[in-house]
TrEMBL record:
Coiled coil: none annotated. SUPFAM superfamilies: FMN-binding split barrel, GAF domain-like. It comes from Caenimonas aquaedulcis. This is GAF domain-containing protein. Residues 161-325 form the GAF domain.
Amino acid sequence: MSEPQLGDIRICLEGVIPAVMATCAADGMPNVAYISQVYYVDERHVALSFQFFNKTRQNILANPRASVQLIHPQTAAFYRLHIRYLRTETQGPLFEGMKAQLAGIASHTGMQGVFRLLGSDVYEVERIEAVPGAPLPLPAPRSGMLAAVRRCSERLARCASLDEALNAVLATLTDFMGVEHGMVLMLDDAAQRLYTVASCGYATSGVGSEVLMGEGVIGVAARERTPVRVSHMTNAYLYSQAMRSSFEANIPDLEAVTQIPYPGLAEPHSQLAVPVMSAGKVLGVLFVESPHDLQFGFEDEDMLVAVAGHLGATIDLMQATTDAPEAAPPAIAPSPAAGAPLQLRHYASNDSVFVGDTYLIKGVAGAILWKLLNDHRREGRTEFSNRELRLDASIGLPDVSDNLEARLVLLRRRLEEHGGDIRIEKTGRGRFRLDLARPVVLTESS
């Protein structure tokens, strides 16, 4: 019988049952201790959490070889890893991934404030030994995950706009992956924030809400360019913590009133965030969560990474194709605006736009809306193109990775949530139309 491979027993590394580690001092004295985390790095390596400078740590620095006993959480089978210490990492994707997982383990075991990751000790796995015993039968393997990725790929291939692509991804998560709560956020690289462009399963959409780079599960996944998964309730990664920190930072009043409530669960027990990337660039984050513990395993993580990769490639492709807009469609006379005029105010300090006293949008998307409304007022225009927005320096789009399509999606959805008196409709590749159901009065405020 061949020896098991690390991928065969990856479920043993989910942190459900603590592992036992045996080390040996320089004088030959053995030491055995429970360890809270054995983390899968790849088929040849694992990482162990370095939390205390204890006897285990002393022994490893004196003698790099050790063994770790793992228990299969479904069959109770025992496995023994023979490992060799290589190095310690104190920052970066591996460290942040372990830190998030350890926070969940600490919360689950009542050890909040005790577990603190000092480093990720990386070991080479030299051999895996199946310990003789009488394990329980292995449950039937989970099925349908590869088919779900295929469905998502097929749906994305049929999409002609970013709106459709975002809807396709969230619908696939709901229809085939059992996800009830999820969202897609895009990166504003200049502001170092991620803004929500689509969500599912929440009481409010939260479109336009923002997460700071490096804050919470979502921000860490974007900053470190790595999946971050938490399997148990932990206050350490609740985004509400980040929101409180943000408000405590003496932000001006105008900034505070332009905060759109984050739509996430109040008490998530499982969270998984994966970066949406293309050509080495972070474009955003795909995020799912659940009110139940242990909802997302390593297979869910693998699947979500594949879906995020498809989404990233689709976004990049759409960005490239909208640079070459289709010929202008035949002009359609807009329906005459009627009824009481809408009062809109613009604050140049952050390009925020208010309808009456209600906040609508800010930033680049706010600057786009203000340009469209002013062009319409001065020239009566209703037809616009992505290209002219990119050439207009007053909007403030970055030179590289401007995510213009994502900003138009954000603007379109925010306008829809405000009653639809102002609408933006796509009229072709790289083209769209401004449609006003009511007259508007524009006011510039300081």
